[in-house]
Amino acid sequence: MKENADKARALDAAEINKQLRDGAEQAFRIRFQMSMGQAEGIKKLRTLRTERARMLTILREREIAAVAAPAKVQAKPAKKTAAPVAKPKAVKPKAAAPAKAETKAAAPKKAPAVKKAAAPKAASKAAPKAPSEARDKAKGKG
Hints:
Layout: H1 2-10, H2 13-36, H3 42-75, H4 96-106, H5 131-139
């Protein structure tokens, strides 16, 4: 298994895409033959699927590596000159704010929400019968 992944990693993207197309064509032919009852290629179909997954995984690894490499370069920030930052003025709390907090504390807590029961579904034309009743009726007993 690992040898196949190493071989696939040695290939370039164009070769991997070519193998993906070839594998998809083979899988189509095998599925078609199986549907016609001509071949029993379940094992071959499974190996084709795993090889396809392996190839797609390798392509995705390369995409992620290509995106991650420039991100690492950008992660190192350049030295910036510090500009003087104005300090925010202290804001005095208003007198109304403590009153609000007191009213919230004095208010009774609400009970947790209770889910409503599901509405009954519309009744069908005939009530469903037990399997034994349906069998008896089919045999003419009932």
